[in-house]
Amino acid sequence: NAGVTQTPKFRVLKTGQSMTLLCAQDMNHEYMYWYRQDPGMGLRLIHYSVGEGTTAKGEVPDGYNVSRLKKQNFLLGLESAAPSQTSVYFCASSYRQTPRMNTEAFFGQGTRLTVV
Amino acid sequence: EDQVTQSPEALRLQEGESSSLNCSYTVSGLRGLFWYRQDPGKGPEFLFTLYSAGEEKEKERLKATLTKKESFLHITAPKPEDSATYLCAVQALRTGGFKTIFGAGTRLFVKA
Question: A42 vs B31: CB contact, 8 Å cut-off?
Fold first, then answer.
């Protein structure tokens, strides 16, 4: 059981280049999330999805786009990378959050991105 | 403003030396508080969920407690393999859904 898988694990980009981070989950979770983690700060939500074909902005969405064409996949795109986007990116998934059920998130291993 | 603060930032213990990590929060509409463990180069791994003040949960050498303003993660007789960063996250009810706020974490080092 793979859980949440992210690719690539490491990447170096030049300013202005574009790339897509891939996330796949095999737990049939409805919700998927993209976070970034920076030193001294908590995980910050970039975008999330509550189901196939739906996406929504999180806390820090500027400079990123996402797509969820299939339930098991959630893609994060950087159209024109900037040094401020140097970070570790985590994808996560969870069952549907409801007023009666509060479920934990399952995280991938992370993608370490450096923009020079 | 919603805020989650973890202290200390780093904690160094000798093997067997019990201690506690703190997570204080100012969030309205609390739905639950999560604790995660994160090893270097890995993603966070779920430990506990607490829902209401007075609730406690245990797992091996770890025990999490919750009050109306803070949560503690007690580590009893820690071992070197307990070394990791421990993250606290608070989930709050908001219009149209939920909001999860993460603390910056406490890095725990346990020396043999």
Answer: no
